[in-house]
Amino acid sequence: MLAEVDSTNAEAFRMAPQLSGPCWILAGVQTAGRGRRARPWSSPMGNFHATLVMRLEEPPAQVALRSFIAALALRDAFVALTGLPDAFALKWPNDVLLNGGKVAGILLEAASSTLAIGIGVNLFAAPPAAAVEPGALAPVSVLQETGLRITPQAFLDALAPAFAAREATFLASGFAPIRDAWLEHAARLGSQITARTGHTSREGLFTGIDADGNLLLSMPTGPVAIPAADVFF
Predict the structure, then answer these.
(1) Which pLDDT belongs to residue 198?
(2) d(CA 28, CA 5)
(3) For position 36, what pLDDT does the model report?
(4) If DSSP states are collapsed to H, E and C, what string results for 58-92?
(5) pLDDT, greater one: 12 or 32
(6) Which domains occur in the chain, in start order?
(7) Which residues contact 61 (CB under 8 A, 6 or more apart)?
């Protein structure tokens, strides 16, 4: 565990040339943590800031499916540590919800056959609601919602084997069982949602994800598959 680092994803790419296999990087504090679209990620002491770095020789589309593996592994770890399976849901494309609020996020970055899967979890503290963009789900913490104090190391001890198990399923059987498991825990499946990409918003019925992980929306003009967007409830 590193006491402090700018970003665990950045550290992953610095370390990658010397690694012989997958490696978890855990940091006490990030000074320049970030989420999707380069948004800042609050990284106080006591929360979980980690990256799994892997060397993969796969097409980019297959590499990107690790976000669903990571989301399922996160939920597996949460349930194992809290005993509250009904409290956790998965929000496309890369968030985990606790009692309807955002408790964890995932950031995938890839370059030169290296994949960094960055994971941030609000174990101890969550940013104020005013810190997120209008319409986004309010952040929550595990401590706030459950009263449980879980250390970053304890969380990694649950997350690492959970990810390994889901990854083994993916390598043995492909994306289909991962997709099915993810949909079992998908937030707002069958409900109206808004998918926003840049200045374009599309509203429709969330019907699932396809074999490539794209969001499926049923709209008045017909079904659409969306590869990347921010989703609002």
Answers:
(1) 83
(2) 8
(3) 59
(4) CCHHHHHCHHHHHHHHHHHHHHHHHCCHHHEEEEC
(5) 12
(6) 2-184 (3.30.930.10), 192-232 (2.30.30)
(7) 212
